[in-house]
Structures are given as structure tokens and as C-alpha cells.
Design goal:
The protein is an alpha/beta fold. The chain is built from eight helices and four strands.
Length: 235
């Protein structure tokens, strides 16, 4: 399989910006080949960290975020039409439309067109992710399979009490996706304990990613970040 021809609009290949643009373009083409689009900037940044192209450490004295060069390169690729804008999702921004329909007829037609019968007979599993970015990427897939999805965005209490727990019943399946490190383990444990206290024992809880088998199978051990941060408790 030969590489696709280089598109017009890229910065000079000997410049730092040009090199980063080309690496990002290659990653995005791999995502396209694997059917892993859309993605988001945070995932791409961590891929670059894993490739040792960029560092996760904050840059000192430049007044820029550690992922700003990556975002600049990504914006360049999209501005020049090299990659489509909708290949990247931004789960932190949305447009809410409460205006309603222009007529009762249009409203009724829209409701019928979007109506969907639950294939799970009212017991759809809930995908619960530690990462808000991951939840945004998986939203289209959750829609395709008619399941529920939510993100804790790290440690949380209010969201579990007001949104997640009221949507669950005893015996419901929760498919959890979180980091395979110390902090990730504590976040999952706290999340599960809170929900089982509110809903009652009996949730069918399964961690589907990352698991120990996946880390070993994909040789991710050297990519783990096993140092504690401000979220981590040693007790």
C-alpha cells in the first residue's frame, strides 16, 4: 500500500509546523482507514505524546498551552480543506435550539421521522466514561446502537446524583471506560460506590476499557502514566 500523494496547502516540510501537520495528517488517515472518525483534538494530542512528537509537560515561559502547536496544525489542515471539519468533534461546545416548529404539522412530521422504538425493551446499557472527550467521540456510535452514554469527567458527585443515578435501576448494565492507572482506578471505584449506594446493589458493572488484558495485549505498559496527581489519594 503506497502513501497518498501529499496535498497542496501544507507548510514547508522542513519547518516545525509543516512536520507536525504531516504527522497529524498521517494519524487522521489512519483513523479514516480504521473507521475511527470522528475523533477529537485531545485524543490526537495523546497519540502525539505516545509517539514522543510532543510532550505532555507544560511549556515554560511561552504563555502557550502544551497542546497549542498541535491545535494550530490541526486548524491549518482544516482551513486549507486538507481534512474535513467534521472529522474532529468538540464535546465542550454545543448549540441548543428551543425555538420549536413552524407549524403543528411540521412538528408532528419531525417527531415521527425521529421516533425510535427501543430495541433493548427498556433496559438499554449505559456507557459511562471517565473522559468527556471519549464520550463525545462515542456519541455517534451510542446513537447507532441505541444505548445511553454519559461522562463523569473525572471525579464527580453532583452529576451522579442528579443525572446518572435517576436513569438507572437495579440490574442495569453499566459498561465503564476509564484510565488504567492509580487515579483511574480510584475514580471508577468511587463512581461505582456512589451509584450502587443510590440505585442499590445489583448493577451489572463491567469495565470494557482499559482492561489489564488490553494493556498487555496492545503493549501499552510503557505508555501508562503511573504517577499520582492532585486527584489521587494514598488512603
Amino acid at each position: 500500500m503506497t502513501d497518498a500523494p501529499e496535498p497542496a496547502g501544507l507548510s514547508r516540510p522542513d519547518s516545525a509546523a509543516g512536520k507536525l501537520q504531516r504527522i497529524l495528517l498521517r494519524l487522521l488517515r489512519e483513523h479514516e482507514r480504521d473507521g475511527a472518525l470522528p475523533t477529537n483534538g485531545r485524543f490526537l494530542f495523546y497519540e502525539l505524546v505516545g509517539l514522543k512528537v510532543v510532550s505532555k509537560e507544560k511549556k515554560q515561559g511561552r504563555g502557550r498551552r502544551n497542546d497549542q502547536d498541535m491545535h494550530d496544525a490541526l486548524t491549518h489542515l482544516r482551513d486549507k480543506g486538507i481534512v474535513p471539519w467534521d472529522w474532529i468533534v468538540d464535546e465542550t461546545r454545543s448549540l441548543d435550539d428551543y425555538t420549536g416548529s413552524s407549524s403543528i404539522r411540521d412538528g408532528a412530521v419531525a417527531m415521527v421521522r425521529d421516533m425510535r422504538l427501543c430495541p433493548w425493551r427498556g433496559r438499554a446499557p449505559l456507557i459511562l466514561t471517565e473522559s468527556r472527550s471519549l464520550s463525545g467521540v462515542l456519541r455517534d456510535l451510542a446513537d447507532e446502537y441505541a444505548v445511553r452514554i454519559s461522562a463523569t469527567n473525572g471525579q464527580t458527585a453532583g452529576h451522579l446524583h442528579t443525572v446518572v443515578a435517576p436513569a438507572l435501576e437495579r440490574g442495569d448494565r453499566v459498561l465503564y471506560i476509564g484510565d488504567f492507572d492509580w487515579c483511574g482506578g480510584q475514580i471508577e471505584s468511587n463512581t461505582r460506590n456512589v451509584l450502587e449506594r443510590l440505585v442499590g446493589d445489583g448493577l451489572e458493572w463491567t469495565r470494557i476499557a482499559l482492561t489489564e488484558e488490553q494493556v498487555e495485549g496492545y503493549r501499552l505498559e510503557d505508555k501508562q502514566i503511573m504517577k499520582p496527581d492532585h486527584r489521587y489519594s494514598r488512603t
